[in-house]
Amino acid sequence: MTKTRPLDPIEIRVLGALMEKEQTTPDNYPLTINTVIAACNQKSARDPVTSLTETQVVETLDRLRQDVLTWRSEGARVERWQHSLDRRWHLGSASKAVMCILMLRGPQTPGELKTRCERMHHFETKEDVEELLTQLAEGFDALVRELPRRTGQRDNRWTHLVAIEQPDAEQDESSPAVATAAQPAPAPAPAPEPPPMPEGPTPVERLGKLEAEVAELREELRALRVRLGDLD
Prior knowledge:
Helix content: 40-55%
CATH superfamily of the largest domain: Winged helix-like DNA-binding domain superfamily/Winged helix DNA-binding domain
Shape: elongated
CATH topology of the largest domain: Arc Repressor Mutant, subunit A
Strand order of the largest sheet: 1-3-2
Number of strands: 5
Number of domains: 2
CATH class of the largest domain: Mainly Alpha
Order of helices and strands: HEHHEEHHHHEEHH
CATH architecture of the largest domain: Orthogonal Bundle
Distance between the termini: 123 Å
Low-confidence stretches: 169-185
């Protein structure tokens, strides 16, 4: 299989919607723009539920077309779109159904995948799903990976590996990072109080003292001149 470039969340939703409708409503496939928008924004079988606009969907389809991940039907009265992931990822009926559910609904257990893939592909047992997931997780171009088991859950969940940013490995609820309650942020240290002003004369008192000293100096200067005049 050949991995595509990392996909953003809207690209994943658009491609997942195209894959789903190809398998569940083949008579209406390829899809019109309005049908793609409706498929992306379905309230059921989507996690998370989105409210994508026509502009977002059209721009995403064009961007995917540049990477040969979608095709636009030519010559039709109404523009229609289809995906090309079967060839890029070498997907058969079973693997396409699994990838579609993971892209539209997020991480799933093998049991959840068996149930939710039913409209697209029938798995006889949960073990058949697990075997397929193991195959998709092999090699450098793996499309899925197994997540750590969550507390109280019997089976591990699986997630796809086609997103730009992968979520960190999920921690068990008993791990310190989850079980420890968040501590309140320490209160900021109070600002230091300004040092007390030294006690002393007020500005008015200092001015009066200065004027007195000047007057005293003038008197001493006058007396000195008188004495010098007497000496002459």
